[in-house]
Amino acid sequence: MLRLLPSCCVLLGLLALAPVAHALCTSDNVPQPRAVLERFVNADCADCWQDPATPKAAPGTLALDWVLPGRKGEDAPLASVALDEALDRLYELKLPSPERTASVTLARGGPAAQLRLAQGEAFNDYIGTSMTLKQPGRERWRAWLLLVEKLPAGLEGSPVPRNLVRNVFRPEWDKVMSRPRDLVAEDRAMQIHEGSRTDRLRLVAVLADGHGAIRAITQTECSP
Known about the structure:
Blueprint: H1 10-17, E1 25-26, E2 35-42, E3 61-68, H2 85-92, E4 101-107, E5 114-123, E6 126-134, E7 142-151, E8 162-169, H3 173-176, E9 183-191, E10 201-208, E11 214-219, E12 221-222
Parallel strand pairs: 2-3
Antiparallel strand pairs: 1-5, 1-12, 2-4, 5-6, 6-9, 7-8, 7-10, 10-11
């Protein structure tokens, strides 16, 4: 969930967004994956993160890792990285909440949408983000903008590298596309959750059209 800045911090939010125009991390020239593998782990499951049977991403597939809130609440072993929005994502995908783990692979279909992402530098626990969709037409889009932390295999015993979802923003593009447009854009400051390493943070967007078909899987990469 996007944490909106309180009025006393509006200036800080603008400063966080300012680097976007000169962002070192963009989706420019980054090939879109053909599919996205979404892995869900229940925060109550202490050993699921280390499960050797964790599905691996096939070539051309981007993996995303969601941690679901558990019944134990803040006492759950993985509670520190659980997101309420993971439950929203399960609902979107029409999947039941697992006791341990679940996964689903979604292939991109139809003409690829021109979706550009950019991120600025971290500032005061926030990061500036930009998402621009060219030639949206009249389509009623459903977009998920994800701030992910890229984690190498072996971290905390994980058998696979992971893109751990740390924060989520969902623009209301399913409403604003009721009339034709050449471009829509969102500039937002997204909160960096405690414990995240800012040098590992990237943006990923999954964009579906009004029929549920995935039309874009876009991610940022950072220049040296």
